[in-house]
């Protein structure tokens, strides 16, 4: 069996864990040679792996991860071993590694841990982020209330599911005002149904949920149906007061319909607010597209949610006590070992947002946000690794 948390979500952001079939992990010249070939070959090579490995993870997926590592941390330099644990040494970083080989020297199991930049300050990390990102990039790092790094931090950028922080803010405001109760029970409505991510789209209308359950699902697993239910409950007007540049404030179902309908999407992108609302009203009668028909197109310039890095840090700061944001750290940030860390991100073709607010082991309160918008695939793994480095350096 081969397990690999990273390859579940765009190679699960900086770490592949693959358990081999009976082979023992060992330091050896053969392991060094296999790792060197893996990093120095420019193309995917099935011959490097066992058949069982390839049944679970294609060589092209591993090659993509390694290309992203090289892009963020430079070319391969060496492999170092300490008590049987390996470290890939790259020009500008170090990556924990474990490898297993079969009797023929083919890779049967592989683990890459979170990479760590070597000798990097915030300015150096910003330069690496700029080099790696496709298209435009915004960066913001605030430490103990002081801005330490800001590049295009006030610029509205497409942020994908990070917009759900606005929905959470509206929900928390309604709870604080007494208009909603966390334990209030509502039924899903047919119009709430959206496409994945999430699981609630599989449930029938009328299925009851507490409001707090919907909020938790929206944030922790980015459930789109839960999100659209909360948008219905808090009201579009409340969201547009919080985020006036996003008028009309889209539901996820509306975004999916726009993504599938090129003519409507283009009209939406060109139109003023009234024209956009008219497009959405016409689309409301259309069924949701099949999930497989969207997801590869670059559609964010015409239809998306736009927030600045400053907006997101403000949102996170105001949501520190929100129950839905507890225990939201991503696996690629777990190695930081921060006692408190709130995380939300978002992605779609051409778009990547990573946002976090936390307290470091040194006691520093850090907010960090990066957003990349371009017309090609973002190197998610590289950007995520560098984002983790931003947090680590800022928290020292």
From TrEMBL:
Keyword Nucleus: no
Keyword Signal: yes
Span of the signal peptide: 1-26
Gene3D superfamilies documented for this protein: 3.10.450.280, DD-peptidase/beta-lactamase superfamily
GO BP of this protein: beta-lactam antibiotic catabolic process; response to antibiotic
PANTHER family named among the record's database cross-references: BETA-LACTAMASE, CONSERVED LIPOPROTEIN LPQF-RELATED
Entry protein name: Serine hydrolase
The organism of origin for this protein: Zavarzinia compransoris
